[in-house]
Design goal:
Structural class: alpha/beta
Number of strands: 13
CATH architecture of one domain: 3-Layer(aba) Sandwich
CATH superfamily of one domain: HUPs
CATH topology of one domain: Rossmann fold
CATH class of one domain: Alpha Beta
Strand content: 5-15%
Shape: elongated
Helix content: 40-55%
Largest sheet: 6 strands, mixed
Radius of gyration: 26 Å
Number of helices: 19
Length: 435
């Protein structure tokens, strides 16, 4: 059925052998935006295994593309022999880090607990839990829940200076806004600092990674450990990914691109990557795939010499979709794309993938017995019944891959899942869900 998954060439998570030191690999891929002492970090990452961590707060039921940057950075460090701790914030998720604009809506403890489990399962898919540098998962609720307010203030709060805390970017932005900031969100950076201190004491963790917008929270722990333990530890901030045209990366019509297949279908996920601009695709290959330097440089030349082939975009979409959703899902969405846009066999597609694909096209839910003329209008392929009849008479309409010559033809939903595909001309498509 469609493209067999074993026919796809997908790069597994592997270390790029062209770099002796994973730090150089991270720099080349554009993953180092800000850090503590770079020379020391390079020496550390080129030496004996270290323990490092990255935290993910359950402020939503799924991780998104921004989190994927962190997950893949963690995996690259693990492939270099280092030991990851994946932290899902059962306590910090009850608060949420301060946003620049307004206070977060606090979720119930039950909701946060459910999301902790969902995020933990997502994080676990990207790390290895076998071998000498097996990953470990931790939940910061385990060490914050037993703390009393007095203990927290005496043992942790006393090491923080309010003057320093209000200089953090997110806090400063909120203080200068009409919304202000609550003491709850103001305290977030102390909780994240406590996490780093706990992981340093329990596991010998000496590196925290995160997005550069979290730099104030990252350095909170670095400073706390230095004050309490008299030891230097490190932080690495990856860049916030933006498109070359200045638009925010990872947004589609205002919605985040989620890693959960129920919140963003594998088909929509694949199409997002396939539509990457030429100016952005090489940077995306570096950050979001495990392709080696030589192969990425080959695609860079193809983008320059034959951009119309979009080979780099196709490879990017395949690699990331397979990485997040598996090779079977990647094969299914590629088959759907080929069937819809290149005249492939629509009947060979599985129902769920076909439905997901049609949801991304203009579509309509129509009752059984609807004729082709009405369906063309209701899906928006034509503006009027008369225009629909002209298109049919001119031979420019097809239904489920077959050209339509009779305007009385019924759209029956003959494809898997009770759907039909309308086509006007060569490339204008719409879906019909017969209900």
């Amino acid at each position: 059925m469609g493209v067999p998954s074993d026919a796809l060439t997908v790069t597994p998570p592997v270390r790029d052998p062209s770099f002796d030191n994973v730090w150089d690999d991270l720099v080349w891929r554009g993953l180092v935006h800000v850090s503590t002492d770079a020379e020391t970090l390079r020496e550390m990452l080129g030496g004996d295994p270290i323990v490092y961590y990255c935290g993910f707060d359950p402020t939503a039921p799924s991780l998104h593309l921004g989190n994927l940057v962190q997950l893949l950075t963690m995996r690259r460090l693990q492939l270099a022999g280092h030991r990851p701790l994946g932290l899902v914030g059962g306590s910090t998720g009850l608060i949420g880090d301060p946003r620049p604009t307004a206070e977060r809506t606090l979720n119930t403890p039950e909701t946060v607990a459910e999301w902790v489990n969902r995020l933990r399962a997502q994080v676990e898919r990207f790390l290895s839990f076998e071998g000498e540098n097996a990953a470990r998962m931790v939940n910061n609720l385990d060490w914050t829940a037993p703390l009393t307010a007095i203990d927290f203030l005496r043992e942790i709060g006393k090491h923080y200076r309010v003057g320093t805390m209000i200089k953090k970017d997110a806090v400063s932005a909120r203080l200068n806004s009409d919304a202000g900031i609550s003491y709850t969100e103001f305290s977030y950076q102390i909780l994240q600092g406590l996490d780093y201190l706990e992981l340093y004491r329990s596991y010998g963790c000496v590196l925290q990674t995160g997005g550069s917008d979290q730099w104030g929270n990252l350095t909170s722990g670095v400073d706390l450990i230095h004050r309490v333990e008299g030891t230097s530890v490190h932080a690495l901030g990856t860049p916030l990914i933006t498109n070359s045209d200045g638009t925010k990366f990872g947004k589609s019509e205002g919605n985040a691109i989620w890693l959960d297949a129920e919140m963003c279908s594998p088909y929509a996920f694949y199409q997002f990557w396939l539509n990457t601009l030429d100016a952005d695709v090489i940077a995306r290959l570096k950050i979001f795939t495990f392709l080696g330097r030589d192969e990425i440089e080959r695609y860079e030349k193809l983008v320059e010499s034959e951009p119309f082939r979009r080979e780099a975009q196709k490879r990017l979409a395949l690699e990331v979709t397979a990485l997040v959703h598996g090779t079977d899902a990647a094969a299914a969405v590629i088959a759907a794309s080929e069937a819809l846009f290149q005249g492939g066999d629509l009947t060979a597609l599985d129902a769920s993938t076909l439905e997901s694909a049609l949801r991304e096209l203009p579509h309509a839910e129509l009752p059984a017995g609807t004729d082709i003329v009405r369906a063309l209008v209701d899906t928006g392929l034509v503006a009027s019944l008369s225009e629909a009849r002209r298109a049919i008479a001119q031979g420019g309409v097809s239904l489920d891959g077959e050209r339509v010559a009779d305007e009385s033809v019924i759209v029956s939903g003959a494809l898997p899942g009770g759907v039909s595909v309308l086509r006007r001309g060569k490339k204008t498509l719409a879906g019909v869900f017969v209900r």
